[in-house]
Write a structure and sequence with these properties.
single chain; about 150 residues; two-stranded antiparallel sheet; 4 helices; 10 strands; globular
């Protein structure tokens, strides 16, 4: 009779482990992902719980240091009490490992190619937003190594 309890227990444990490995923004629309920038830190913690890790990322100047909350699939860069930048594994149709030609096709004609990265200005929000997609080399066969959504006015 004890074996009948083992299967449901394993099922629930598997769901809990699977949920922890999914990106926190799974199922969110592009608009909801764009709303991460400007989010209050307290709202981030209330909605998604404590981060997996917290690190400090050094800038060139002392005032450019960031506290980074790392969740599965996204890193949130905090300035004072708000998110000013998010590093995604995948967003707006672009994912780490994608080829540069695919990224330019997905982002459209307004994306600007700077060789080792592509920038896309996003309008229609309360503040300016920029999407930056970094590549491992400048050729069209380069692959995405990082995707950032940020406020360029910070």
């Amino acid at each position: 009779m004890k074996k009948t309890y083992l299967l449901p227990l394993l099922f629930f444990l598997a769901i809990a482990v699977w949920a922890q490995n999914r990106p926190i923004y799974t199922g969110l629309s592009d608009e909801e992902q764009l709303a991460f920038v400007g989010m209050m830190m307290v709202d981030l913690l209330e909605q998604y719980g404590p981060p997996r890790t917290v690190i400090v990322e050094r800038g060139e100047e002392a005032w450019q240091d960031d506290v980074v909350f790392q969740y599965n699939g996204a890193d949130f860069y905090i300035y004072r009490d708000r998110v000013w930048q998010v590093k995604f594994a995948s967003t707006l149709g672009v994912s780490n490992g994608d080829r540069k030609t695919n990224v330019i096709r997905v982002l459209g004609m307004t994306a600007e190619d700077f060789g080792d990265h592509v920038l896309l200005s996003i309008t229609g929000k309360d503040w300016p937003l920029m999407l930056r997609v970094n590549f491992n080399n400048t050729s069209n066969s380069g692959q995405v190594t990082a995707i950032y959504l940020y406020r360029p006015d910070f």
